[in-house]
Amino acid sequence: PGIECSRFVSLTDFLAKHLKCCICLNVFDKAVTNDCGHTYCRQCIGDWIASDRHHCPECRRPLATAVDTVYNFTINSMVGEMHVKCRYESEGCLEALELALMTAHEAVCAYRLCPTCGLSIGSANGGHVCPPPLMGDTAPEDTNLLDIDPSLIQMIENEIITELEPMDWSDVAGLEFEKNKIKEITVLPLLRPDLFQGLRKPPKGILLFGPPGTGKTFLGRCIASQTKSTLFSIRVSALNSEW
Prior knowledge:
It is a single chain. With 243 residues, the chain is mainly α. Among the domains are: 5-80, Zinc/RING finger domain, C3HC4 (zinc finger) (Herpes Virus-1); 150-239, P-loop containing nucleotide triphosphate hydrolases (Rossmann fold), CATH 3.40.50.300. 31% of the residues lie in helices and 7% in strands. It has eight helices and seven strands. It has helices at residues 13-18, 42-50, 73-80, 99-108, 150-160, 176-191, 216-226, 236-239; strands at 31-33, 39-41, 70-71, 83-85, 96-98, 161-162, 231-232. The strands form three sheets. Strands 2-1-3 form a three-stranded antiparallel β-sheet. Strand 1 (31-33) and strand 2 (39-41) form a beta hairpin. The longest helix has 16 residues, at 176-191. The radius of gyration is 21 Å and the shape is flat. Belongs to the AAA ATPase family.
């Protein structure tokens, strides 16, 4: 939720201060205003209320449902006319357009990423062939844990291992910049290590931080699903347990 300040062209600190959602700390995306006059991204305040926090994040006044908010035409019109950089800038795109026009550009951007392999498609009119997969469902089973006490394994599984339903990147609303970066620096090196031979080793970890309701858990679940990894959900009570 929200649009990263770094994507805007010539965004002053003064303007950013008045166009920033206090939940996601980004520029408003589909801004809505509650009955006490405070404004948030529509998804941010919706997630806030869905997590059983029925009060305004700023003044703490009661806020029963997201229906208590109204679409802020003034702010949304202002943000829509501001120029932003293409989300594929890191791939080489130098286009900068009004936010309202950027979505159409990104759909055909020559530097957009292939949703299958995560690599740059290249020319919008050129053909793109995904490289053959290196890893599959037939990968040999890891036998490193065979000698560990089964009761300890069961205890750990009961405490921190989360059962996952298959998830795709499209199941995570928004966060396009974050999703593309995660694919590039985390998912792709795991699935296609042959592409990184001779390069620096990819990072072994990634830190997702932010207030509740900003999509961190969904991103973690999607990473685990896409890489066929195990998702560990560790609580304080689990850290203090006997094992």
